[in-house]
Amino acid sequence: MPAQGFALFETAIGRCGVAWGRGGLVGVQLPEARERATRDRLARRFPGARETAAPPEVQRAIEGITALLRGEKRDLSSVALDMDHLAPFQRRVYELARGIPAGSTLCYGEIAARLGAPGSARAVGQALGRNPFAIVVPCHRVLAAGGRVGGFSASGGIATKLRLLAIEGARSDETLPLFESEHALAFDPATALERLHGSDPALGRLIEAVGPFRLELKQTPSLFVALAEAIVYQQLHGKAAATIFARLRALFPRANQGPTPEQILRASDEKLRGAGLSRAKLLALRDLARRAKAREIPTLAEAGQMDDETLLERLTAVRGIGRWTVEMLLIFHLGRPDVLPADDYGIRKGFALAFKKRELPSRQDLERRGARWKPYRTVASWYLWRAAERAAR
Q1: Among residues 82, 188, 200, 344, which one is catalytic?
Q2: Is 344 a catalytic residue?
């Protein structure tokens, strides 16, 4: 999409960005975990644009967005948007959504009815999921049926959507999801399945054979406990690992939600080895505890605002924690939408079965095919695991 320039600016929710062309704004970028990631995302979205000072009309739009995110009542419906490159249906959806005032909401079905196409709620959701003008086209004000929050494709997923609604004083029938909750997926599964069906018919056939997407997120009281459990489980049969982790927790009877970093650091080697830990896992747990105490390990809330690659970089610095371990955390604890564990045997086996390959794919082959599944590679991975399980049965 054509863009002449882009600029970053500070808001109450973090550093946002806008890109503009001759016809007005061509994109708005909500904050990533770090300013650099926000800038890089804008540069990828608009490769021909250069970072520069915003012209007066764009600066007025920036001031309006900033005020709105401070909680002020601002009407952004007059901000010029360049929508010439968009499909007619998308433009109609965005124009109607721009009429929803701050503090109010509509559902996908209501948008469809107002468009004169009452059966197109899913298409409305897909159009809003591709909204390039976040905030200015307030897709966060459009909810799923029954007041449920629905999906949100920006960084932070539905947590960001609920935060925007809270700033504006709007309400949905859901509260901010806890990371322990089984409902904390950072994406809308229905939208993901629709996208995967359209981008890869062969994967679509697997989806139809397996049935509904039922990823179950694991509960955990903290990121530290989740990582400690992952270290214990490495290279062990599930039942044996569960026994050892239960023994580890039993060493600290007052820590009913799992050991704390301080408890791990105070415990003697003999005490920890007595629970069944190998020397390698003992050293890994102590390194994890030291880093957590030094605040090098993010909390669950902080992890929720960090992008996948930042978390991978931060957590793989811990002794004994590799990329696969963090990928499992991203999928099964944080519910991230776009994770493809390309080194996982079950994923590779499922791929070979689903795509009728005689040999297991290389990482490069899997990632090449997986490019079709972005930004929902987690959902594709779940179905590949199911393919391997079905063959084993």
Answers
A1: 344
A2: yes
